[in-house]
Amino acid sequence: MQLAGFLDSRMILHEQRALDLDTIYQELVELICRYHKLPVSCPELMRLVRQREEQSRTAYPSGIGIPHVRLEGLDDTLIAMSFLQDPVPSEEIKVSWVVMIITDKSSSNTYLNIVSALLKMSRDPELMEELRQQNDGHGVVQVVKQHGIEVKKEVCIGDIMTPSPISVSPDTLLSKLSLIMSNKEISMVPVTDEKGRYLGEVNVLNLLKVGVPDYLMMIDNLNFLLSFEPLEHLFETMDVATVGEIMETEEPVLHPKASIVETVALMIRHRKSFVSIVDEGKLVGVITATDILHKVITV
After folding, report:
1. What predicted TM-score, i.e. pTM, was given to this entire model?
2. Max CA-CA distance within the chain?
3. Per residue in 93-127, pLDDT tens?
4. How many C-beta atoms lie closer than 10 Å to residue 241's C-beta?
């Protein structure tokens, strides 16, 4: 089905004012309530939007924010959007396009497929500029029609992965690796060469293991160790040792076209909470169990 079929030109804004996200959400909620009969009141819908926003971030690295609410008994999929002249910060992301989606509780698959199409659009700078140049919602709908943007029937892992993730090289010092993990709050980093080819991955346990002597792993009870002395080796080698010395090279990876079920099965089978996404030998993304939880399970 074409994405344009889900759009209502009356619910598309080009916002010139500098507004915060909550005010933008209120504008979109008012549009939805004005043109559609809902099973809840307008204030209740706004409360649900805010509640969903508090539960998990709805902004994506490409600059699109997709607040979403599922309503019992709606029996429809409603989309309202606003193109922002002044991007609004949401954590580390500057949101320049907000798309609010209201669906029935039984329409999770439709929602995911629409999100997939929207994310693809948001990563196309020429298309986004063309949409921003339109004078009204009718023009936006026509552009979407002309580009033939489809809502697919199936969602693959490439649709919800984090594209162009942070990576390190085998020559990266462990001191730099630890800073990346700490600053970005991540526990795994893919390893690539200078051309972006996937070589393996390194995780926080690989790093910590440097400071744990082999003999300690043979002792059942380590309660007698009350100091950091066994970790001194890690501190001493942080500015000398490299990622190449501790990285994993045999970890399983996935193709962007892998299914959600295939990804979940691999994570459970290999006890992994993160997987690198590789296409033709090159790293193209990363998917985590938390991504699947937030973007698939709790949508």
Report:
1. 0.70
2. 72
3. 899 999 999 998 777 778 888 988 998 899 999 99
4. 18
